[in-house]
Amino acid sequence: MSNPQRPALDCAGRFLDLSRPLVMGIVNTTPDSFSDGGALYRDGALDLERAFAHARTLCEEGAAILDIGGESTRPGANPVSLQEEQDRVLPLVERVAAELDVVISVDTSSAAVMREAAALGAGLINDVRALTREGALEAAAATGLPVCLMHMQGQPDTMQAAPSYADVVAEVRTFLAQRAAACAAAGIDRRRLLLDPGFGFGKTVAHNFQLLDRLPELARDGLPLLVGLSRKSLIGKVLARDDRERPAEGRLPASLALAVLAVERGAAIVRAHDVAATVDALAMFAAMREWGRQ
Question: Does residue 271 carry a catalytic annotation?
């Protein structure tokens, strides 16, 4: 399962070896994320100690990257103010950078958060809006950090209203290529880019499965792929019974199956809530792949 053609990615002095698939652990500092919103809160406010303990646990479970985000982008989510996002994200970034040996990804679309998180020790920018917000391209370029560009049709508050594509894979691929070109024009080296097809972000169940099935078409563009399928609503819909979706807490086995399928089709990084189980699943897949090459 190793891919020696993928170079190591320099994330502010910490290096990600992309020759083997990696797991990105999710740290949501939001009260309203779809699966674990509010889990790190106490008495209505983010508990920094609880958030740091969760981050440390994910590292111990094998996360190579921690993705820290302060804005919920679940379907129907409302935007947050810049100050609120900064208050949620920056203290945790600073604490993790000081105490844990891990690459920190900041999950943000805001130029100010990109700059400030980079100054505090973040090593990767993960933007669901692919640097389309005002000032984001320039801010990302100035940090010198790698950037993950994600595809999303619409905005979080409306993206699942009526997703429509003539060819979802072709349109996602075109959009990501355009954003990669915009990054190059802004001075962001192509070797610093990762791509995320945006499973669940303005896509129906059918769109998601088309993207997963044809993921190798996106991988052929040569940039590492990051995928997020963990606990997504497509699982809840596929496994629904009596017109009731499978709740988020019951989606782990299916999340693991989708993670393995994504890596098999070329994904380099898997974003996951359940890090230990995902690390184990990918380790078994890697062992099988290596055994088959002997």
Answer: yes
